[in-house]
Amino acid sequence: MNNVDLSSDDISRYSRQLLLDDIDETGQANIKQAYAVVIGLGGLGSLVARYLVGAGIGKVLLVDSDTVEKSNIHRQVLFNQDHIGQHKTQASYAQLRLVNPYTQIELAENQANSSNLPSLISGAHCVLDCSDNITTRKAINAACVNQRTALFIAAASQYSWQAINLRCNGSDSGCYACLLAQTTVQEDCMSQGILGPVVGMAACFQATQALLYLASTNVESGVNPEANPSAEPKANSETQNTWGKYYIMNAATAQFQSFSLPAYKHCEVCQCHK
Question: Are 151 and 261 in contact (CB under 8 A)?
Fold first, then answer.
């Protein structure tokens, strides 16, 4: 059992999610101690951050170097007309403090890259990749594999969203580099356009998966029953994330596809960490 006690305010604030078998008081205490890094505060990251903070995560680092533009507002839910021209990190911080004053919110007004990512994600229990380009995703993936940090990726363009959860712990499933080596990935809302609710659907899936993972992880001991099957199970260890499966959803036609991502035996990112 987690040693962190829930206050009366915690119980009142999170009463609806405490009713869930996959959360309960143990899971909520785990979330309260958890630390997540959200990279990108666009349509994905702004909503992901809102849900993580709303759910009571203990600490979150928000990483983005952009400012709010008028074209962002239709899908980036933390921002409104008054935020145009402000740094997304600062605008997000102000909005999220109103949601939950108890979460420790840290900001990195940087463009995530291969040089700074090792320090940006150091100590995190999971990373949520909400970036908008493949180059950044590759760098995030490499950093997470190197530090064996759970990674939740989502993307969207036009009417379609995609997502995958990666353990990055040397398991049999592949990493994002394996995905690129075995299939063509098109993730570009800048040239293809995007409908606001579609990217919101991706963000909801991504945030849900991360919260279920954090709820089932005793962050004091680093034990997660999925990542370490021999570990002593907790009360809510039945929580199951689906790892290494790539999901594709067309929101306009309600068509859903998924496929398992095997490790690419020649991958220079994850196979060298076996």
Answer: no
Cβ neighbours, 10 Å, residue 183: 10
Flag whether 151 is in a domain: yes
Neighbours of 225 (CB within 10 A): 19
What pLDDT, on the 0 to 100 scale, is given for residue 4? 72
* Residue 168 annotated as catalytic: no
Q: What's the domain count of the chain?
A: 1
Per-residue pLDDT at 172 exceeds 70: no
Residue 56 makes CB contacts below 8 A (sequence gap 6+) with 10, 13, 14, 28, 31, 32, 100, 102, 103
Q: Is the residue at 3 inside a domain?
A: no
Q: Would you state the structure tokens that stand for residue 218, as one six-digit string?
A: 């005793």
Count the Cβ atoms, other than its own, within 10 Å of residue 241.
18
For 20, counting Cβ atoms within 10 Å of its Cβ (0-12 exposed, 13-18 middle, 19+ buried), the class is middle
Evaluate whether residue 1 is within a structural domain.
no
Name the strand (E) or helix (H) holding 221.
none
144, 189, 267, 270: the active-site residue:
189
- CATH code at 140? 3.40.50.720
Range in 118-132, 166-180, 224-238 with the lowest mean pLDDT: 224-238
If phi over 0 gives left and psi between -120 and 50 gives alpha, with beta otherwise, what is residue 78?
alpha
| pLDDT tens per residue, range 183-239 | 777 655 556 789 999 999 999 999 999 999 999 987 655 444 444 433 333 334 445
The rounded Cα 129 to chain-centroid distance in angstroms is 6
Report the predicted TM-score, pTM, of the whole model to 2 decimal places: 0.90
Residue-range definition of the domain harbouring residue 175: 8-273
3-state secondary structure of 250: strand
